[in-house]
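Exam revision sheet. Question 4 asks you to relate a sequence to its structure. Input first:
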Amino acid sequence: MRLPRQNGLRFRDFVGKTIYILQPWLAPDGGSFPPASQLLHINRLIGMNSLRKVDQVELEQAVERWVAYIDEHPRRRIAAITSYTFLNTTVNWLRFYGLLAIPSLPVGPFDTLLTEFMHFAINERKMATDTIQSYRFKLAAFFSKIGWRHRQISSIVISDIDEYLEHMRVEGLKPRPIASHAQTFRALFRYLEAKNLTQPGIARAIPIPSIPRYESYPKGPKWRDVRKLLKTSAEAGPLELRAVAIAFLCSIYGLRGKEIRTLTLEDFNWISETFTVRRAKSGRFQEFPIQFEVGEIILRYLQEAGPACGFRQLFVTLKPLYRPLHQVTLGRIIKERMINRGIESEYFGTHALRHACATELLRKGSSLSEIADFLGHRGIRSVCVYARFDSRSLKKVAAFSLAGVL
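Answer key, structure tokens:
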């Protein structure tokens, strides 16, 4: 659809430019702001060819179109928060510009309570930004589902939570994300019980699916497949250069997605050939040497692909309006490259390469303690799983002879 101009400015450009204004406003609790592409989806589904008021009926129709679009998408699926996320972003954007024809569309009767819990998680629990955003989405979806049945938080009982988790299971969610939701609900109801706002014992009664701590197979691809991701040609374009640079940081250094997204140009010291990473979970800083191949691909990305913009993050979008990469975008870049290269893996994305890095370090003789330090873990418990995948070392243990010991 060709979008008309409004006072010399195309409506598409008007939508895109709002991301700079919405960044501190849409996500006051630490969440990320929506990319311009999402705002353009909103414009398309509402049919806003001009600045006009939007009523509740149009919003409901737009949500239905969005769910249908996700349902037909070849690589996306409907989640429990699909409708809420789209509706919340749309309402906030329209309300910000005074284009909302209805007074308010809150999450439910518990929107104030949700905000208070988010402030508690930020100020008292000191949770990470990504965790806060995840909590907010999960709880908002839960409240929007049951909020119209219960007007008081004290009336919610364990059967309501059981019913919600069972609905997620029927919808096709796997045990791990269901367990994540259950842990989020436990955190909320522990907070509510401490304030005497709900019935005691609900947090303890919330069921959490049994998930094996150590799975019997590697989560990441084999190292020979990782090498395919790191190969690039002299004619590589901006998209490929950025993808390869990210893949190097994931697989060679085992960095988490957030650690890559927060890397800035100042973190790289090209004189001493080192770069500094702020660990996502512990918050401590860790310095790494810049390996030759890694330095070459990053410099090539900056010289040939990196756009000239005001952001200091290493990885940003390659088209205006420029902005740092979103967590979902970063994971999709690696996932699409793995799929396009025909790589077989149980998991895809940045964390899969982190697992491949740990497995390769163990195969080359690094101790579990060294691997834990390298990956930024506080102890070796999180990396013990990789010992099960090192078949060569296990065979050496099995071949150990006790002859002559007695």
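Marking note for examiners. Confidence is low (pLDDT under 50) at residues 1-33, 394-406.
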